[in-house]
What we know:
The structure is a homodimer. By secondary structure, chain A is α+β, with helices and mostly antiparallel strands. Helix content of chain A is 27%, strand content 44%. Chain A has 3 helices and 8 strands; from the N terminus they run ααββαββββββ. Chain A has helices at 4-20, 23-27, 48-58, and strands spanning 30-37, 45-46, 62-73, 76-87, 90-94, 97-102, 108-114, 121-122. In chain A, strands 1, 2, 3, 4, 5, 6, 7 and 8 form an 8-stranded mixed β-sheet that branches. At the A-B interface, strand 3 and strand 4 of A face strand 3 and strand 4 of B.
Amino acid sequence: MPSVPEMRATVDKYLALVATGTAEEITALYADGATLEDPVGAEPLVGKEAILAFYKVIEPIKRSTELISFKAGGDTAVFQFKIVTAFDALTVEISPVDIMIFDEAGAVTSMRAVWSQDEMIMS
Amino acid sequence: MPSVPEMRATVDKYLALVATGTAEEITALYADGATLEDPVGAEPLVGKEAILAFYKVIEPIKRSTELISFKAGGDTAVFQFKIVTAFDALTVEISPVDIMIFDEAGAVTSMRAVWSQDEMIMS
């Protein structure tokens, strides 16, 4: 099982890549056959190809991330972060709580993002 | 799927019962066949009988709870809370992040508590 500092390092890397990395770099953090459910309640995406396509959507958009809180134990990390995306004059901010589960090698096997559309802050 | 306010009401009730309720009252919030993993990384308990036995342990201990944060969407609520337990002169405080998954009827099918022993604050 990955240690808490190892999970923290992956979460920090994940947020840095979600802000400035490529979809390929983000997807490399996931294990083969991993699942991604964002937001929770949506049909989960299964496998790296589907996960890559998910992150490809945000790749061209200007965005920034900031970790708000982090807690981990066992094989699981729970963290809240702020993500701000800019579409021309419009800025959209959300603060999801992500639940990540890791395999023995420290790769992400499951990511579920807890947030809802009505929490979006537009400015 | 339960609404976010319904999940919030169950979490509020859960924390109130963890503070002052009986093990039977707490266990009634769970679905048949539910799983409980506390802390994450421990062997999950399966079914109401095992869950009842888990809460029976804390029943005689003087304790209080306080919600710190709450987020929910889909079938999942994530919440942090402080629990203070008093053993004679010793007070132990932890602040787990619980991940609860609900069924269609609003019963808890899975609870995983993210915390580790080294976070205990004793006074």
